[in-house]
# Entry
Amino acid sequence: MLKSMTGYGRSEGETSLGKVFIESRSVNHRYSDINIKLPKRLSLFENRMKEVIRSQSSRGRIDVSLKLESGGEEKVYLSIDYDLAKQYYRIFQELKDKLKLKDEVTLTLLAGAKDLITVKEETGEMEPYWEEILPILKQSLKNMEEMKRLEGESLARDLQSRLDLIDQQLQAIKQQFPSRLQTSLQRFHERLRSLLEGVDVDPLRFQQEVVFLTERIDITEEIVRAESHLTQFTALLAREEPVGRKMDFLLQEIHREMNTVSAKVNDAEISQRVVEVKSELEKIREQVQNIE
# Structure
């Protein structure tokens, strides 16, 4: 069945690090765009998390956020960049001498310098915790995928109803066109004969011109191709793999055939049916933008 690109999933679980909360959100996007938000000490898991996400979702913008509720206080330590401190001191001293300032370069002044003192978490070895976090991530993604499938089922029902409307219009055009074609050819015959009355005309050449005109205004091939594309589109509704891009392509092809029909046919009723088909195609196209 179809999958929407819109979904939300949440999961939580206890680990040796503390309680882990993972939220997964997905919205429509032309390509695959994965963004991970993690505590710094778990940043080494980012690429592995992206691989897990890609294995389940091929398209969409997916944001995954992991929060850690630690059971105890996190240990931190301060680090001093001594080489940078010397550079700051030298620059401040040069500035003091250049501007002939009376103030001294003090520890207080140096302590406010950017990146001189950094705070780091004492992380220890994080690798063993991946196997504890992975099931929580998978459950969050599973919940998100379930929501995407439910919305996909709703989209499929809506698309099917619109495909049925398009098919009805195509069948009506097929039924109406032969009589419309015959009427058009009859009018053409009468007008041409009146214009050529008294003129010696080669019957074979006349017949060739009639055949040529018939081919120019015949829409049989366009309708057949449109029906074929419609059948392929309908089949995609039941496919398990991502089909959004295929659907988008088929919609473009059906729209192109309808443009040709509209250009060939000089009939108000058929033209109106083409307009109805195009209207439904546009509504379907808007829905397809959210299908994975």
